[in-house]
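Service request form, structural biology core

Requester: graduate student, group of Dr. S.
Request type: structure prediction, single chain
Budget code: on file
Notes: please return the result as structure tokens.

Sequence provided:
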Amino acid sequence: MWHDPGLWIALGVSALFIAVGVVLHRVFVRVLKGPEGDSVAHPPEDKAQP
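Core staff response, request fulfilled:
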């Protein structure tokens, strides 16, 4: 069983998907927990009002 090349390909692809999922999870959490941008912190000012 352990000498089958298809097994190693499947294990490698599975490990790759798990690694990519962990990296994307860390990126999303970092982006969502990051500081708010200027567009959110300061609403746009209306120039027409005095």
